[in-house]
Design brief:
The chain is of the alpha/beta class. The protein has two domains: 217 residues, Alpha-Beta Complex (Spore Coat Polysaccharide Biosynthesis Protein SpsA, Chain A), CATH 3.90.550.10; 92 residues, Serine Threonine Protein Phosphatase 5, Tetratricopeptide repeat (Alpha Horseshoe), CATH 1.25.40. Helices cover 46% and strands 18% of the residues. It has eleven helices and ten strands. Strands 1, 2, 3, 4, 5, 6, 7, 8, 9 and 10 form a ten-stranded mixed beta sheet that branches. Helix 1 links the parallel strand 1 and strand 2. Helix 4 packs antiparallel against helix 5 and helix 9 runs antiparallel to helix 10. The radius of gyration is 22 Å and the shape is globular. The N and C termini lie far apart (58 Å). The mean pLDDT is 93.
């Protein structure tokens, strides 16, 4: 267990939560080589001297003079890190005390794996809903991912994880500890992508075997601290889900990189994502946009079963034309 780990914490205008996050790193049973705080244009700026760390663990601050977003902040921290392993912690979340030690143990024992996903436990006033949704998503994914238990509470995955992640990417598959060399190979977080953690998880699964630590040592806060309204976030996530599938799937369509199974898998996943968008748009009264999204779904994977959907749109449009109809 000689590997060293750098912990990267992106932050923007959350000084009190940031201090809690840093404290949770300082309480680890296996301390990191360094803590890198990426200050994404906070006002006032983050000052490394404001933090006390045990055993002289250095805290370095990488400063963005204008906000570039979470993906860019994570990338900046990864590029600045000097550890053999990279761990990431959002500024509003916490590590349980054994988080780093568990990840390092797993990666030191399983040399065939370069990425370990870390299961999460939710806390805060809105944690019950997050926990319920997370557990449902994890069960759905594990039913399809064909994980192989290599030790208690540790599963290793092969290619089937790609198909499973195209169905759902639970939060546990968005929290990673990764060898720095593998992060360079898999690539940065995609900065234009809203669902950058989901996108990176898919690319990691495409790269080779991965591991899931099933003991919930990443503590995910649910206290209404998010920056977006739910409706706005839902639509952005639906469109981002389509973009990820289209972009990654396009890589398997060239003659030089022809993978029939993956090509079909991503095409069908894109069709499903477009239909999810169509359903959402129709439910919110955007019938023309819903019909367009449905057509895009049918182009990628024609389905007789879903051909009733335009009738749903037509019925919705007709109801809106009736006298006395109240919008919304």
């Amino acid at each position: 267990m000689s590997s060293t780990v750098s912990v990267v914490i992106p932050t923007h205008n959350r000084p009190e939560l940031l201090r809690e996050a840093v404290d949770s790193v300082c309480l680890q049973t296996r301390l990191p080589l360094e803590i890198i705080i990426v200050d994404d244009a906070s006002s006032p700026p983050v000052n490394a001297a404001d933090f006390n760390t045990p055993d002289g663990i250095p805290i370095r601050v990488v400063r963005h003079n204008q906000s570039l977003g979470g993906a860019a902040a994570k990338n900046a921290g990864a590029h600045a890190a000097s550890g053999e392993l990279l761990a990431f912690l959002d500024d509003d979340d916490l590590y349980a005390a054994g988080y780093l030690e568990r990840a390092l143990n797993l990666l030191s024992r399983h040399h065939e794996v370069d990425v370990t996903f870390m299961a999460v436990a939710w806390f805060g006033p809105y944690s019950s809903g997050g926990t319920q949704n997370y557990e449902l998503a994890m069960r759905r994914l594990l039913d399809h991912a064909e994980g192989r238990e290599v030790e208690p509470e540790a599963l290793v995955f092969g290619p089937a994880l790609v198909d499973a992640l195209l169905l759902t990417v639970p939060m546990g598959f968005q929290r990673i500890v990764v060898r720095a060399s593998a992060f360079q190979r898999i690539g940065d977080y995609t900065e234009h992508c809203i669902l950058w953690d989901c996108d990176w998880a898919l690319r990691a699964a495409l790269d080779g075997p991965t591991l899931l630590n099933q003991s919930a040592l990443y503590r995910q806060r649910a206290a209404g601290q998010g920056f977006f309204s739910q409706a706005e976030t839902t639509l952005k996530h639906l469109r981002s889900s389509i973009e990820i599938r289209e972009r990654l799937g396009s890589g398997f369509q060239t003659e030089a990189n022809f993978h029939p199974h993956l090509r079909k898998t991503f095409r069908h996943a894109s069709a499903g994502a477009y239909f999810n968008l169509a359903y959402y748009l129709q439910a919110h009264g955007q019938n023309n946009a819903a019909l367009h999204a449905w057509l895009e779904s049918q182009k990628r994977n024609p389905s007789l079963r879903l051909c009733k959907f335009p009738l749903r749109i037509l019925a919705s449009t007709f109801r809106r034309l009736l006298p006395g109809h109240k919008p919304g």
